[in-house]
Amino acid sequence: MRFIYHEKSGADILKLDTNQYNHIFKVRREDAKKQLFFRNLKDKNLYTYQILQIDKKGALCELTKTQETFLENQKEFFIAWSVIDPKVIEKTLPFLNETGLKKLIFVYTKFSQRNFKIDFERLQRIAINSCEQCGRADLMEFEIFNSLEEFLKIYNDVAVVDFSSNRFQNLSSALPKIWLVGCEGGFDENERKCLEKFITIGFESENILRSSSAVMAIASKLLL
Predict the structure, then answer these.
(1) Angle formed by the axes of helices 86-99 and 120-134, to 10°?
(2) In the chain, which residues fall in CATH 3.40.1280.10?
(3) Which residue in 21, 45, 62, 186 could disulfide with 182, CB within 3.0 to 4.6 Å?
(4) What is the pLDDT of residues 133-188, one digit of tens each?
(5) What is the CATH number of domain 4-68?
(6) What is the tens place of the pLDDT at every residue in 79-92?
(7) CATH 2.40.240.20 residue window(s) in the chain
(8) Within a 10 A sphere around the Cβ of 217, how many other Cβ atoms?
(9) Which residues are bridge partners to 66 per DSSP?
(10) Among residues 119, 107, 98, 73, which one has the least CA distance to residue 191?
């Protein structure tokens, strides 16, 4: 674990409640005598704290050092992902967070099951846990649209990931900022017509990728 997340990191005195205390000292097994590193994932600072007091309800920590240690990912791309099973999204999210993906945009397309609802609080918790492990110092952003048409009203610098003989390596250096990946089954005929004006990119593999595999492949090519 590279640091511990606390939304009030930076305060002179930081209070850990029972759940936070248990997570740090019983689950993570951190040494109470050692300095602890915290981030709030809002600013660029790494905060160092020393334990002042421990009781049955938690602990108090005193700020001893503030250091700006933030390496911003210079490759700022977004992935727009047709809504699929949230369980699959949750399993894929830590990988996307580790790559430094700036924003993950969800779009309900024709082949998305409308009963799938995105729990953004849960996704944020998963992203925070991933940041603690990999050291990322900022939170991934999330956004959602109820249809492809709504999405395209806001964003137009888009590349579509679909079946195509056009390959990633054949693109110019000016890559589109947003990469749209469909759900299982891709896009329907009306959606394809809406997307005709955008560049479409396919993979060299002859295998049909799952939606989550395509998302991870694009993130790897763009960000790693």
Answers:
(1) 40
(2) 78-223
(3) 186
(4) 999 999 999 999 999 999 999 999 999 999 888 888 777 668 999 999 999 989 99
(5) 2.40.240.20
(6) 999 999 999 999 99
(7) 4-68
(8) 16
(9) 47
(10) 107
Length of the chain: 224
For the residues of 49-90, what is the DSSP string, one character each? EEEEEEETTEEEEEEEEEEE-----S---EEEEE---HHHHH
pLDDT value of position 57: 81
Question: What percent of the chain shows pLDDT beyond 90?
Answer: 77
3-state class percentages of the chain: helix first, strand second, coil last, to nearest 5: 30, 30, 40
Single out the residue of 89, 102, 98 nearest to residue 184, CA to CA: 89
Beta bridge partners of 209: none
183: tokens are 């759900």
